Amino acid sequence: MTEEVIVLQPGDEKAQKIGKAISSQTANDILHILREGPRTASDLCGVM
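The structure assignment produced for this chain is given below.
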């Protein structure tokens, strides 16, 4: 399995978006749920 490597520069828009997502408790909860496997949006709403 190959993984894509993304290089982020400070102040870059993509870096800012990733930083916001990482700091969001809701986003963190969703990522933990998705680690178990694929889910639909409806599934996520039911779990949250």
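Interim note for the steering committee: DSSP finds three helices and no strands in the chain. The chain has one domain: 14-47.
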